[in-house]
Write a structure and sequence with these properties.
The protein is α/β, with parallel strands linked by helices. The protein has one domain: Rossmann fold (3-Layer(aba) Sandwich). The chain is built from 11 helices and 5 strands; from the N terminus they run βαβαααβαβααβαααα. It has a 5-stranded parallel beta sheet with strand order 2-3-1-4-5. α1 crosses α9 and α3 packs across α4 (about 65-80).
């Protein structure tokens, strides 16, 4: 079976940034987003690659995501191009055959945001503004009204995030498995290129890598959170 590449993470952890830089390192690669989530993702790209309609793809997402992944890898192998997709910890139950297939047959990259407070806050900001991504063409980021965070909700989120991370590490410990931290690659695209080059054992692009995706955050956590003093204890590198 052809080898694929799978990026495991959670929302608001820099996955789109990673995919954007990866696409610059592998311009011919087939790169798709959250294709295993309910309702699917990247459907036009999948339709073009697989030659089937969106309804058939969505049926595979719902009933047989492993078949979808195998079809993607086989189609990419025929075209002699690499395949990379992302999956979040909670998109598919861990007892599903898809995860075991990843472990046995694919390269798995685990992207972690060390400070889960940032992940939680990013969710809340995006929910308030309705802006889940920001591109250079979009201009200024949407204004944010200071948020009041529920300490109990935040604590439970961090605990759950830690469980996801440890489950992933344990499950893939004997697999073709790499782990990177968002904080290490977010400083510049050059840092992300370096991480990708190390994982895939390639020489990255010689020229500066530029991507249309832009960082959304322009204020500090203290400025964004009205009750920051109440939750400041959670604002730290935890993982």
């Amino acid at each position: 079976m052809p080898q694929g590449n799978i990026l495991v993470s959670s929302a608001r952890s820099g996955t789109n940034y990673f995919l954007s830089v990866y696409s610059k390192c592998f311009p011919d690669a087939f790169v798709v987003k959250e294709i295993f989530r309910e309702g699917g993702d990247s459907l036009p790209r999948l339709e073009e690659l697989l030659g089937v309609g969106s309804q058939r793809i969505l049926k595979m997402v719902e009933n047989n995501p492993l078949r979808l992944w195998r079809n993607i890898k086989e189609a990419c192998a025929e075209e002699e191009i690499p395949a990379l997709a992302k999956i979040f910890y909670y998109h598919v139950e861990w007892n599903a055959p898809l995860w075991e297939n990843f472990r046995k047959n694919d390269r798995v990259i685990h992207l972690i945001r060390q400070n889960p407070f940032d992940v939680f806050l990013s969710h809340k900001v995006a929910q308030q503004t309705g802006q889940w991504q920001k591109f250079a063409r979009d201009g200024e980021a949407a204004p944010v009204e200071p948020l009041v965070l529920d300490p109990e909700e935040l604590s439970k989120f961090i605990e759950r995030q830690g469980e996801h991370i440890e489950k992933t590490r344990s499950f893939f410990k004997d697999a073709n498995f790499s782990e990177i931290y968002y904080e290490d690659i977010a400083k510049s695209t050059e840092d992300c290129v370096a991480a990708i080059s190390k994982i895939f054992e390639i020489d990255g692009p010689k020229q500066e890598v530029k991507i249309p995706l832009k960082r959304q955050k322009s204020a500090t956590n203290q400025e964004l959170v009205a009750n920051y003093d109440e939750v400041a204890m959670f604002d730290k590198a935890t993982f």
